[in-house]
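step 4 of 6: structure.
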Amino acid sequence: MTDGPTASRLTGTWPGRVLLAAGAAGDAFWASGSRSFSLSADLAVALPVATALSLVFVAAAPTHLADTRRGLSWQPLALLLTIAAALELAALALGGHSRPVPSFSTVVDQALAWRASRFALFLLWLSLGLWPAVRRLRASRTGMPA
Amino acid sequence: MTVALIWLALAVALTALEIAGRRSSGVLSLSELARRVAERRAGRLLLVLCWGFVGWHFFARSTVPPL
């Protein structure tokens, strides 16, 4: 496993960033070409998850925690998440693959039928999970807020 | 079809909330919520596990065969 300073040096330089982007694109290409329920698909997902898990333990806590704003209005987000949860529960109660009330994953599965959309969605998924970890790693090196 | 459009509308609304949150409009966005959860190592671990489950569910266990 890479130690914290080495990993943060890797992500902080432009060759490191190019390597990271190439690795992400390669993994997305591999995942988008793998059939569901195959070892290849499992590995294409497991590799970035293992990387992110290692970053959770490798990256030291930032010297200064993120400058989170307090006192924000939480009601709009809570409303949207409640509607989503209610819709998902209703869809699952109807079997999950109901045509009139599909679950979220059934809707997304339709978009995953094409390799190009699977590639794009996999890249989106990778960036959502790995980018915050990489930022935190760099912040822990420089002592700046993540 | 109608419910699929509601899912799309929810995704658009969450994106709009995210943009509004970044413009300091005083509303809590998903990324701000995640940032707060990630202040602790256990929270970061939870976020990575949730993210991993989403990836495994959609990309390794998708029920629609590739075209």
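step 5 of 6: annotate
 - The mean pLDDT of chain A is 82.
 - The helical segments of chain A are 4-12, 14-32, 39-58, 75-93, 104-111, 115-142.
step 6 of 6: archive
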